[in-house]
Amino acid sequence: MANRSQIQARAAMMRVRFEAAGAQVVDPPLLQPADTLLDLYGEDIRARAYVTSDALRGEQMLRPDFTLPVVQMHMSEGAEPARYTYSGEVFRRQEHDPDRSNEYIQVGYEVFDRNDPAWADAEVFSLFALQLRGLPLRAATGDIGILTAAVQGLRTTDRRKDALMRHLWRPRRFRTLLDRFAGRKPGPEGRDALLEAKDPLAIDVPMIGKRRASEIEARIEALREDRDTPPISDYELVGLETLLNVRETMPFALEQLRDVAVDLPQITPALDRLEARVASLQARGVDVERLDFEAAYGRTSMEYYDGFVFGFYAEGRPDLPPIATGGRYDALTRQLGNGAEIPAVGGVLRPDLMLEVEEDAQ
């Protein structure tokens, strides 16, 4: 097992390589404002953050990652275009897996550039692949933007599309909603009786919670409207199911997704971006013919990404978390930009896990 000095030495070496690629070194504070950033993290990270209270600064948290603090820093004071690198400790609770460390070092690389998003995607991925060269790892890629485009373009109500988007990161809940909206499954038990009642509030049930009667009535009316909404069509449902099951090498995945676009034409712009990314990856020397693409990849752990996503995994060590992950987060710059925005992509690596995989391979 690598010791702390070895991990820090590897992190420093990796950061120097990113500096050579044009990145500026940044070092966000260990304590971050929880009220600003906590809601932007995905459910997984949010539940594992260490939060404390400060009499002057309000709620603070030990940084659970670097990306959000770097985005916030760039949107408040960064020039364009910009490339950043960093290395340092992050902190996450590990209550469900006490064998995993709750403090470890991340090394990262972030790109803020309007010029050519596909080229920036390829730049980040190829630099990560170079940092990891020689390790027995499997690379996986995906694109959250294809699925979000498919959902947002469905021929159904905005309310239903919003519900699906809220649960995009929870595959089981998403599947349940999709089946219900397609008429394949009934609604929750007791809902029909409630909606059929002439005066639902007259039903003898206790009033629990802080909602006023007017809010409850509005919710019931919304549920009635949803009940009367025609189901999502079979061809759209089949298209979504086919999309979610695409798992191939990049060129073949693109070919399959082009077929899906016959029934879901709203995904065509996202597929054009994927095609440009494939060409950029090839131009940077990545063997896309052997690079896996999974249309559903990243749905359970990458909530602030909204486009290209990737990860590197030790197939011989399924007990290890990803050795590296990353992706595109354009929407995050809008949320932290106070009206400004810029295309952005980046990722993080775990030098401790890299050293562990190296030891296993010896």
UniProtKB/TrEMBL annotation:
Keywords: Glycosyltransferase, Transferase. Residues 14-351 form the Aminoacyl-transfer RNA synthetases class-II family profile domain. GO terms for molecular function: glycosyltransferase activity; histidine-tRNA ligase activity. Signal peptide: none annotated. It comes from the Bacteria. L-histidine binds at D65, F66, T67, R92, Q106, E110, Y304, Y305. GO terms for biological process: histidyl-tRNA aminoacylation. SUPFAM superfamilies: Class II aaRS and biotin synthetases (SSF55681). One of its GO terms (cellular component) is cytoplasm. InterPro entries: aa-tRNA-synth_II, aa-tRNA-synth_II/BPL/LPL, HisRS-like_core, HisRS/HisZ. Homodimer. NCBIfam families: PRK12295.1-5. PANTHER family: HISTIDINE--TRNA LIGASE, MITOCHONDRIAL-RELATED (PTHR43707:SF1), HISTIDYL-TRNA SYNTHETASE (PTHR43707). This is Histidine--tRNA ligase. The gene is hisZ.
